[in-house]
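User: Hi! I'm working on a homework problem where we have to compare a predicted structure to a textbook description. Could you give me the structure for the chain below?
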Amino acid sequence: MKRLLLVLFLAVPFICLADIKTDTLSKLPEAGYLLKNDWKFHAGDDAGWAVSTLKDNNWQAIDPTKLIRNLPQVSDAQICWLRLRFHIGDELKNKNVALAIKQIGASEIYLNGKLLIKYGKVSANYKDEETYDPRIQPLTVQLGGNSEQVLAVRYSFNKQNWYAAYGRSVLSVTLSKPENAWDVYDTRLNRYSHRSFVFGVFIILSILHFAIYFAYKSRKLNLYLAGFTFLQALTFLDGLTPSWRSNQSYEFYRTIFYLAAPATFVYLLFMVYDLFHLPKNIWIKLLGLLALPITCCQLFASFGDFAQSPYAIIIYLETIRIAIRALKQRQSGALLLLIGQITALCFFCAFNFYKYFSPDLSYNIRLLLVDMAFLPPAVVMSVLLAREFADNNIAGVTVKAGRRTFAKKPCAGTGEATNISNAKRIT
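Assistant: Happy to help. Predicted structure tokens:
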């Protein structure tokens, strides 16, 4: 009996602590607060589910920040409701905050029973549904005067909607200070501008080397480089798509990216071999063919991104090995190519390290890492081929000039023989 009383005595503090609301927001952090926990889900549609007084205790718990393929109940329902009760401190009552929202479907957002905004068109019918992703564009709202706030979302995502791999988050809502939310959004827009610039660089290089190839068809390496830079441009196509808000258009870009990204490394590998006139043995060809299963993984598996990174590193290491071999043989361009490939590999590894282990890295540093991971191989190869093309043109002009000089110069004795013949005719 004494032992039972002792256990109950020790358990009382833990029971009390369990009843305390530990997720009460008294102050918003600078980076914002992601509303991830305590969401409730219910399939179906009922306008009454928007009211704040609704009893939703028997609704299914859900984490809407998960990828759509990991939440089949959402697409199976065709149309559903999501609800969240969260608590705020006195400092946030009746204060303006910003909601930064990302989603893959269509939604109607309610706060404390009041409709705030509609993103797309919610419908259980695929033909009527219009998916829309606000891409964290801030929505400024005023919180209520009570400690408990109720966020309700009417949501739809039809099974017929296409998405690559495991898709994107069903719904992600971050509470932030309005000024901080707009700073983050402006940074995101700057990222799009920067990626559109890199897209333009690759497109210009692609057009340039297509033109060189048509003028100098005996060197097919220019055609390969044109294809390589064109595929690289496709991986930066999202720089032109900040206004692409529907699921279909954005997933179209993601599909293009997953198809183009592995192929760029195959082009890079084969270009380096052709640059130094090396034969491609069976292992190199198999390494190139490995891009096909990696592409499939990116399109249909959740670990696609993890599969591509080691593949890219292997390609970089192989090209570095070939560049070192060519440098030992004192082949032209080997040193410049070696510097470019080592630079690209270092920045590619740094980018992937921070991507998976330090996701809070600033956008500006991320952009620098991406640029230096993918631009050097294209720029170095372009410089080498452009220099080769110029040298060949100079050599061709020199040969033609020599031929013209030789043709105009009279043979020795020709003039004298003509004069003698004319003198004989006069005599």
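For your comparison, note the following. The radius of gyration is 33 Å. The longest strand covers residues 79-87. Good luck with the assignment!
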